Amino acid sequence: MPRPGPRRAATALRLGDDILMQLDERAIREGFAKGDGEPNRSDMIRLLVDYGLANMPKNWRPTTDAPQKLR
Q: What global pTM score does this model have?
């Protein structure tokens, strides 16, 4: 049975194991956990994307020296 509420748009990201581990650690640290205690990576990514969309300058693009880790 699908979850109640509005349907979320699907987004696909390819992330390396090191970034996934950082996302999981941050999700747990910030209280994004599923009922079984596993990190809720999807909600953490949604939060980060929402923040980026709201706060990044228009037409911003990463440079070759952009960091590849989460803060």
A: 0.64
